[in-house]
Amino acid sequence: MKQFIFVIWGCLIFSELLAQSNVGIHGIALKNAGVSAYLIDAESGSVVYATPQVSMVPASVMKVVTSAAALEILGPEYKFHTQIGFSGKMNSITGELNGNLVLKGGCDPAFYSEYFTDHYKGTFEEWCNALKQAGIKKIQGDILVDLSKMEGVLVPGGWQWDDLGNYYGAGVSALTYSDNCYKIHFSSPAEAGKCVSITSTEPQMDSLRLRNSILSSEVNRDLANVIGAPGSFSQEVEGTIPVGRSDFAVKASMPNPAGIAANEFCNVLKNNGISISGKVFCVNKSVGDGFTLISDKSSPPLKKLIVPLNHESLNLYAEHLLREIGRAKKDSSELDKSLVALKEFWLEKNVYLDGFYPTDGSGLSRSNGICTQTLAEILRYMYLGPNRDDFFNSLPIAGVNGTLQNAFKGTKLENNLRAKTGSMTRVRSLAGIFTDKNDKKIIFALIINNFEGKQATAEKAVETFLNEIYSREAEALKK
User: Fold this and answer.
1) How far is CA 376 from CA 48, 100, 312, 383, 397, in A?
2) Of 76, 161, 11, which Cα lies nearest the Cα of 477?
3) pLDDT tens column, 155-211
4) Nearest partner of 11 among 37, 40, 53, 51, judged by Cα
5) Is 143 helix (H, G, I), strand (E, B) or coil?
6) CB under 8 Å to 272, separation ≥6 — which residues?
């Protein structure tokens, strides 16, 4: 009891020292903003600095909650599986399959992803060879894509309309393909303010209808926006791209990734001498009865999947992991049940969940609500657990890589701090860990809502604050 009182007394003294030294997140851009912070000693759990706890819009630091839970529930070696097989009867003499070729989606978020090109390279060709080895030369039937493993809505209801057509607004699928996005290639004139031309799409989609309102601009970055309903082959592109580009690519949400993947596979089969009489059909019911497995493609282990998820802030990966949490805990990949499973898991771990209102797994929804204390306690749970290295290695390093590549340059936190970032209009968040001047590990979570001005302004306020904590933490502990 005396030891507990001493710890509380020490925390109060330290908080008072910080208050006297005017440590805090400051800036004119924050005068009307909501600011929340919670910092703790990673080893002892004692509070280093805290603001009053209020529920805030977290943006992509929500991925901390999802990826950590997935690692704990599913395990670091967990893999997804995509299968190819057939239903029907095969004539071993003629090599003719009287039945359907079946692609069974296994909800793999990384299937043919640009982040794991080496892992999936040649998968369709491998499947083609497996069919040949099984004696199949001709398919008298269709290609059925079994999408039954992903239940319920594919896009969270809290996502904004103007996000859905962009690559980062792509929904989940039982057969996700190539990050569920495609590329629109443009050619822009040398003069600003002029119409640009669409030269091609990658992959080519004959059913796609694009309305092009893009103009050329002196601004040297992608300011294009793609608008379209989930699954719709009618989309509009607006905004600007840089002047004088012969080939400028903009990524957009793929309308039907499962169907496009099956068509790409169908082309590989035909190019390798296996003919198909039918068409591609995507079905939402299991075709397991009479299914003969030919080949199985597993994903990289989960501990590797969460690296690009957190380094590059991949919404698609996070949403897939959320649904897999639901399958593991609730025997359902429906969004609502998966969100309940996520919340119940952290409740079981005695994490502070006041003000926790999850509506997705990635943070793209503005309907999400969370307190910084929740984030800090989840980070500490991971720090003290067996999956510490796998989890914290998935977070970007300040000034080195990922979404923190240009952050904290020239400070003591460069190549020291690891954290997940979050940003959307008028939202900036950061949650992670660093080592202070006294060689103590400090876990922190910061969220700013409704600040004025540019993201860089909020970023600067956060960097200044954490560098002050880095230095003054050591000074306070010495007093």
Assistant:
1) 11, 51, 21, 10, 18
2) 11
3) 999 999 999 999 999 999 999 999 999 999 999 999 999 999 999 999 999 899 999
4) 40
5) strand
6) 125, 128, 132
